[in-house]
Amino acid sequence: MIMQVPFVDFSWQHEPIQSEIDQAIAQVVQRGDFILGQTVAQFEQAFAQASGVEYGVGVGCGTDAIALGLQACGIGPGDEVIVPVNTFIATVIGVLRTGAKPVFVDCDPATALIDLEQAPRVVTAQTKALIAVHLYGQMVSPQQLREFTTAHGLLLFEDAAQAHLAQREGHRAGSLGVAAGYSFYPSKNLGGFGDGGIVLTNDQTLAQKVRCYRNYGASQKYVHTELGTNSRLDSLQAAILEVKLPHLQEWNLARNQAAGQYDEALKPLADYGIFPFRNDGGPGHIYHLYVIRVTSESPLTRDNLQKALGERGIQTGIHYPIPCHLQPAYQYLGYHTGDFPHAETLAQEILSLPMFPGLSEAQVQQVVETIKSVIQGD
Ligand SMILES: *Cc1c(COP(=O)(O)O)cnc(C)c1O
After folding, report:
1. Which end of the chain has fewer beta carbons closer than 10 Å to its terminal beta carbon, N or C?
2. Which Pfam families does the entry mention (predicted)?
């Protein structure tokens, strides 16, 4: 019999707090404040405080958090925004929604994070901001981000959708720049039972603007002072997230520990061209995903390894198989194959292994042993 290892398993997280969640949902239903109201305000404050930031504004999803956050920063048509090319497409959608142009930069193949040494080349008179994407749960170096954005007079916006409560160099995700966008998509480190997102900022005026945008652009009921939209964090989601938030640090730590076990167990596979990414963030890396590289030195291609693992009950993912500049809908931006060699190579090599709080050491061993036996052709 094969022991299956799922890619994500919520039971360890949800079972101990299930009755608390049920109660929180029942209270929202009882009060009937389904839109905004007390629950959303409470969660906004709690999440901002946990991240060491003054204001939180709950929105409908992470994509909207980026779009509305950037818009509140004054980003719009004619502006250029620097974005890592190997991010999830929502970062790009957020920029395009403001009317600004996304300008891509390649990644460091050792970490998969944006290569800031390549960023100065793309700065023009139109460049207004850089979006730091803390990919897989590892923050981009706060010091290097500050040096780059200060030197070029750019706004720093964080896409922290994979980095809830991540830390690096003594700084928390979401506290580095003018504002940050988060997602509460169910599988994120802090996830609801549906879509959700938040904008964090220390700027009161900016927070006020996002509050206005998310609620039809109304500064008071039926007075529309901004060209807004409808994108609010759902009260039921806020109630669930409020119950989960106090456990997040423990869950993140559990992910980091499982990652340490993977790192150790995978060491012998370096001889077969299989490597984890480098962790420059120490315990502050919250491993939204645990990703390995199946390089050209490996006897099996990434796709064949993934297929063989699947047949042996090990679920894996690819984050992401096509870099943003090669996505069919974005060809009009004018990029081509070969423009970003690191991201293009990684797209062929990366494989996300099972990762969730509650992943046991035995499961980690099972995953790695299965990779070994497949690679060795057993
Ligand atoms: C999940 C994610 C988003 C988008 O969040 P949604 O809530 O799905 O809109 C944005 N950026 C990154 C890096 C993400 O992982």
Report:
1. N
2. DegT_DnrJ_EryC1 (PF01041)
